[in-house]
What we know:
Strand content: 25-35%
Strand order of the largest sheet: 1-6-7-2-5-4-3
Number of helices: 4
Distance between the termini: 35 Å
Shape: globular
Amino acid sequence: MKNSNGIKIIAENRKAHFNYFLSEFTECxxxxxxxxxxxxxxxxxxxxxxxIVIRNGEAEIINMHIPLYEQGNIFNHEPLRTRKLLLxxxxxxxxxxxxxxxxxxxxxxxxYFKNGKAKVEIALAKGKKAYDKRETIKxxxxxxxxxxxxxx
Length: 152
């Protein structure tokens, strides 16, 4: 399922769109080992519970699940290992400042292949309150009714 830009989406984090107000979307690379990239191409990954932390001046993604590669041998990877994100130093410093001062968190929203390279789209996220989530559900239901041809 490639689109015209050479992008093939592997995983989307729909949970993030429901639980957070998202802003400042950024594309970054991800450091993977050989069996991880092969497994991504075959089986995909799960980023529903993933988040990004900044340690020692590096951005890392936590809880990104890439299943084991079946043809892998003793060099197979750990499915939930911490992986390094490839960002410029100024981007890492900016995200770190927003996390520390603005009360934000950083979450992955998409994992995709762009011109054969694995990329992760990350976003600055601010948590939604319960009433915000109810409002989102109400709007989604109303849009669904209007699409069906309801009488609203």
